[in-house]
Specification:
The chain is globular and about 70 Å long. With about 650 residues, the chain is mostly beta strands. The protein starts with 11 loop residues before the first helix and ends with a strand.
Length: about 650
């Protein structure tokens, strides 16, 4: 069944292709927590039904992922409310995702419980470039500040990715597809349960000739290809009825061609990511007191080359993150639960940009490291049937920026009339990234960014859950926001010179000069009538620079459309054929802080079909951007035109 939740309105492209499954259990999909089979989410760090979560949340389950047919996670997320992206070309190029207009590095990305943010990236955030759908079984998106449970960086929200777990003694799956621009994707996985042991491994290979990352409108003609290989695995061993150990791993290796300096070129980049996790789980007091001790490790390596240079390598960066954590949860009663924990996270990075000339020595690595220790706790209470209230506090001790205390609170009220009311408040605190402090553009005098936000919403289920309507209002303020400042060749600004060397200029530097505000409405609706399904969402997000006394006061934050909308229609036939269509409209945005460069609005129309050869094997096909819309999410960078793909999948 495609798990559609009104207040978060899931990927509409997936809805358009999932009518039959949706029709079979529409009531369950829209159920409130009182129903025993309500959807369970884990992005809250403890299993909860959707209608026990005060924050807006989207859930995309495995059936939705299959029916959407999207290759990358970005495409799955893009049609959910409050999400916008910018991409520097086709598949494999730098991709930034923004939740409710927040900076791309103001959101936390988690895969199987491990934070994926890259310490060597500009803002310490995560680049969605190489994250393919692969063996992912579920994606959860929590919108709004989530710092209490997921760390101070979770100002915009959290994207929680969960890979598949075995359910049978032996099981397997595969996907094979091909299409436009010599694109081929092949994926397979196998797993099983044997006594106390459960295990699963999966892998995917994706290749495409791509498009020119330099937009066609500006002379880009040569194709920039992309190759990606990823592997994932997990195993869990039950040592006793109440004790288990589990290990998880994820590896991705990508090679992407791109165009440097806004012209066709032979530049290419290599990206390798590794994620590892090992945990011990102990349940006490008859399962009421659950404990987890874990170690997580991430390692990201990025290298850029241009074979036309005398010195081919033009960039090198490595970022590592090590994390120890303890998390406990205790059920005082059936209505009172506490979650609490301690974390220690150590990050380090190095980067450098060698000159093209062999006569110029290779520079030493810019290096940096940071350590943060945190304690947190959250209490959830159900004082009345259908009413859940929670509140939490987190204390972060950063080795460079000292201590910071954050608060959050929220509530959700599920009424017998099918009405769900919710509200929440949260705070965020983000220390400057290692790159912002210690790179060649760094500034060790930066202050942390701080944010607070709230939301309130309502949803209504009507006609035995066949119709849903609702809306959410949110508001967020960020202060001490860090921005990049460019330097002219004639400026005398001391910050435009390399620290400690007043004679050597640099291209720019980071500083705390910005205050931003974002507010808006997310509205969704869905109607299920037998095999016919209609669905839509609309987001109006005002994200502005509110730095008083500056030239950009009142300007739109870059690459954030103020309005986006999605709609879909689908129909499932009794003989196994499913047809669907989806439309995405994105309003205008601006590429730069001064709003001097406009990015025009655009409309994308997709068609999808799926035919079941049997319960286990299905054929599928899709046509994306069927009207070949030419558009840009980042100025001068190309985007995919009309694309057609077809394939076969099996689940055994």
């Amino acid at each position: 069944m495609f798990k559609f939740v009104f207040r978060s309105s899931i990927c509409l492209a997936a809805v358009a292709a999932s009518s039959a499954a949706f029709a079979e259990d529409a009531g369950t999909a829209h159920a409130v927590a009182a129903d025993g089979d309500s959807i369970i989410v884990t992005a809250t760090r403890a299993p909860l039904t959707l209608d026990e979560v005060p924050s807006s949340i989207a859930v995309i389950d495995k059936e939705a992922i299959d029916r959407a047919q999207d290759i990358g996670v970005t495409e799955l997320l893009l049609r959910t409310p409050g999400i916008s992206i910018s991409r520097n070309g086709g598949y494999g190029t730098s991709t930034s995702l923004r939740i409710r207009g927040a900076e791309s590095d103001h959101s936390v990305v988690v895969i199987d419980g491990v934070k994926l943010n890259d310490p060597s990236s500009t803002g310490g955030g995560f680049n969605f470039t190489n994250l393919l759908a692969g063996d992912i079984s579920r994606i959860e998106v929590l919108r709004g500040p989530q710092s209490i449970l997921w760390g101070s960086q979770a100002i915009g929200g959290v994207v929680n990715v969960v890979t598949a777990s075995p359910e049978k003694a032996l099981e397997g799956s595969f996907d094979l597809e091909a299409g436009s621009r010599q694109t081929v994707s092949a994926r397979a996985a196998v797993g099983g349960r044997t006594g106390p042991l459960s295990w699963r491994i999966g892998g995917q290979r994706f290749t495409t000739d791509g498009i020119s990352s330099h937009a066609k409108a500006f002379g880009g003609v040569e194709r920039d290809g992309y190759r990606n290989t990823n592997l994932s695995g997990r195993a869990e061993l039950a040592l006793a009825d109440n004790v288990s150990v589990d290990v998880r791993g994820y590896y991705s290796s990508g090679r992407v061609e791109f165009d440097g300096f806004n012209v066709d070129s032979n530049d290419y980049g290599l990206n390798k990511e590794f994620v590892g996790y090992a945990g011990l789980n102990v349940d006490l007091v008859g399962g009421r007191f659950r404990n987890r001790i874990a170690y997580a490790y991430t390692d990201t390596n990025r290298d850029n080359f241009n074979p036309d240079r005398a010195r081919p390598q033009s960039f090198e960066a490595d970022g590592k993150n090590q994390r120890w954590e303890y998390q406990g949860s205790f059920d005082f009663t059936d209505r009172i639960t506490a979650i609490f924990g301690v974390e220690n996270e150590r990050s380090d990075f190095r980067s450098r940009s060698p000159a093209a000339s062999l006569a110029t020595p290779v520079p030493a690595f810019a290096r940096g490291k940071a350590e943060i220790t945190s304690v947190y706790g959250q209490l959830s209470v159900e004082p009345l049937d259908g009413l859940t209230l929670n509140g939490g506090v987190r204390y972060d001790d950063h080795d460079s920026f000292g201590g910071q205390t954050l608060f959050a609170a929220g509530g959700v009220w599920r009424l017998s009339t099918g009405t769900v009311l919710r509200a929440s408040y949260g705070e965020g605190f983000k220390a400057p990234s290692l790159y912002q402090q210690f790179s060649e553009y760094g500034n060790i005098g930066l202050d942390p960014e701080e944010a607070h936000g709230w939301e309130a919403g309502v949803e209504q289920h009507l006609f035995d859950n066949k119709l849903m309507v609702g809306a959410t209002w949110f508001d967020r303020t960020t202060t001490n926001q860090i921005i990049y400042n460019s330097c002219s060749s004639t400026t005398t600004n001391p910050m435009c010179f390399v620290p400690g060397d007043p004679t050597t200029r640099r291209f720019g530097y980071y500083s705390n000069v910005a205050r931003s505000e974002a507010h808006g409405v997310e509205a969704t609706a869905a109607l299920a009538l037998g095999g016919l399904k209609l669905d839509g969402n609309y987001s109006w997000i005002v994200a502005e620079d509110r730095s008083e006394g500056t030239a950009n006061f009142g300007k739109w934050l870059p690459r954030r459309p103020r309005q986006t909308a999605n709609a879909s229609a689908s129909y499932g036939f009794d003989f196994g054929l499913e047809l669907g269509a989806a439309v995405r409209w994105s309003g205008k945005s601006y590429d730069n802080a001064s709003n001097a460069q406009r990015l025009d609005d655009y409309t994308l129309v997709d068609l999808r079909a799926e035919y079941a050869l049997s319960d286990e094997v299905k054929l599928f096909a899709r046509a994306e951007n069927i009207f070949d819309e030419q558009y840009m999410t980042a100025f001068r960078y190309g985007s995919l035109g009309r694309s057609i793909y077809a394939g076969i999948r099996g689940r055994f």
